[in-house]
Amino acid sequence: ASEFTCELCPYEMRPDTNRTGCVPISIIKLEWHSPWAVVPVFISMLGIIATSFVIVTFVRYNDTPIVRASGREMSYVLLTGIFLCYAITFLMIATPDVGVCSLRRIFLGLGMCFSYAALLTKTNRIHRIFEQGKKSVTAPRFISPASQLVITFSLISIQLLGVFVWFAVDPPHTVVDYGEQRTQDPMAARGVLKCDISDLSLICSLGYSILLMVTCTVYAIKTRGVPETFNEAKPIGFTMYTTCIIWLAFIPIFFGTSQSAERVSILHYII
User: Fold this and answer.
1) CA triple 174-159-241, angle to 5 deg
2) Which letter does DSSP use for residue 187 in this model?
3) Among 11, 114, 149, 261, whose CB has the most other CB atoms within 10 angstroms?
4) Which of 102, 110, 73 has the alpha carbon at shortest distance from 271?
């Protein structure tokens, strides 16, 4: 550059204070002390404490009639999924690197997959018992606790298989996004360090859990008229109805939000 001509700085650089050269743009990331991180972490800690308390209670009274009647095996799977949903918050806020990005891919949809797979298996079992009862007194197949676990973990394995395929097609890596903090003031320009996960990849990762959720909702509707002895059917149905409404609100809000810090918070509240 000279007194009468100007040259553009490279995309990842900005002019210095004297406008005589270019300097690298500062790179930022979501900090633990940021309000966008503090609130989700606080909520996650409360959720982890509450979930851990329930798990410890179940283990302590594992052989009591009320715990056995609740379906111990599926309850543990469901509680594991809830625990993972809260724990993923810390990975979403942690400094991005290859290891953190890899764990994000694995656990992002895994917690919801655990939860919805357990609920789907429960509602499917109730539906099959109720439908079989209309035809004969013979119990339907695959309703034992062991069978329920096999079905649940088979559903979960599909999610893991999809993640491993994602690893093979697009290995995890970090990227610096210079467009997210775009500003007319060059001195305020910042690059955002984050995992290179596109919106399409994110939807694909969560898509299977959404499919499980929708299927579970269908079974919840089918079992809404079961006898009172299957008292878990109605709470599951209410849970799935509200979950569907929340997800319908989540999609436009999430993709209408440009800032990654805000997206982390929104994603955490939905999960």
Assistant:
1) 105
2) G
3) 114
4) 110
Give the integer Cα–Cα distance in Å for 29 and 107.
Answer: 21
* CB within 8 Å of 180: residues ≥ 6 apart: 192, 258, 259, 260
Alpha helix positions (H), 136-259: 145-169, 199-222, 233-255
Whether pTM > 0.85 for this model: the answer is: no
**193 - beta bridge partners?**
176
Return the DSSP state at 14: E
Query: Which is nearest to 116 in space by CA: 173, 146, 156, 88?
Result: 156
Tokens of 157: 């394995």
Backbone angles phi, psi at 170, to 5 degrees: -140, 90
**Under a CB-based contact definition with an 8 Å cutoff, are residues 152 and 121 in contact?**
yes
| Residue range 142-192, pLDDT digits in tens | 778 888 999 999 999 999 999 999 888 888 888 888 776 667 777 777 888
Pairing mode, if any, of strands 190-195 and 26-28?
Answer: parallel
Give the integer Cα–Cα distance in Å for 36 and 26.
Answer: 20
The CA-based diameter of the chain, rounded to the nearest angstrom, is 94
Alpha-carbon distances of 42 from 49, 82, 121, rounded to whole Å: 11, 16, 32
